[in-house]
Known about the structure:
Strands 4-5-7-6 form a 4-stranded antiparallel β-sheet. It has a 3-stranded antiparallel β-sheet with strand order 3-9-8, with helices on one face. It has a two-stranded antiparallel sheet with strand order 1-2. The radius of gyration is 22 Å and the shape is elongated. It has 11 helices and 9 strands. It has helices at 9-18, 28-40, 51-63, 67-70, 86-90, 102-117, 222-228, 238-242, 269-276, 279-282, 286-289, and strands spanning 76-80, 97-101, 150-152, 167-170, 182-186, 197-206, 211-221, 232-233, 255-257. Bound molecules: zinc ion.
Amino acid sequence: MIRLGDRGESVRRLQRGLEVAADGVFGPATEKALRALQAEAGLKVDGIYGRASWEALLKRVTRQGRLREVWPWRGLRRLTLGARTQAWVARGASYNSIQIRGDFAEALGEALGELEDAGCAVTTSGSRRALDAQVSRSRSATSMHYIGRAFDLGVATGAQDPARDAFLVAEDAQLREARRWRVFARVGDNHAAHPLVEKRRLRALSAKVRGLVEVEALVVDVTARLEQAGFVGIGARSASWAAPFQRYPGTEWWHFQTVEGLEAGRSTFGDELLTVFDLDALRGKAPWALRGEVFGEKFN
Ligand SMILES: [Zn+2]
């Protein structure tokens, strides 16, 4: 909900919609215009921008043909992965590209390119999720995968056998509290001189022994480099944290996402869907039914 005194990008979007000066500060002029919208739509006139007002604004803006003025189009961009990934693609353990929201693609592309230069095989199990993809316990209906903000490294290319995997999924003192693993890529000796490459002794997940194994290897800290590009891992579900191989799908070590520009308590899933999909494509689809969910509350 957005109200008098609030500021930020969500306020600016509302102001563009209401055609008042878009200074990002919810002042009396914004409130007056919002009250007029609420009256026109037959809503309770309280000057507070919530779910019903959001719908009314979308309707008005669509009628006026100003949808892209209010919800600017960011689209998706495809980043093609490097030659080292192709061996995993051939084995069916990876796709050969990642699709990500247009305005995040440059930073991510740079990070992936640097990882590849350092000798990493950047694998992926997917990024953009289709609007009619099936939703399940491990596939949230408000996933960042729908809105071009997330991608998964190859689920089967780490934590299996640290002697062969592309990624080492390691215990990390800093990330433990967030139930997160630190992801390293194992690289060949010929990359030892690259500035991102270091020799580390790690305790890495291994499906082979169903636990942690000590590994000493030349590695690149993938988690650190992706975080520089704004893409941060998420925590494992608690049951998966306790028993990673009994509940492997919830370990989520492979998932990275960006929350850049999202405002807790204000940005809605609908706002995000509209930046990468046409309204016609969204109507009738499961994610669109959740357009009123708010970042930091129901989607995160
Ligand atoms: Zn994911």
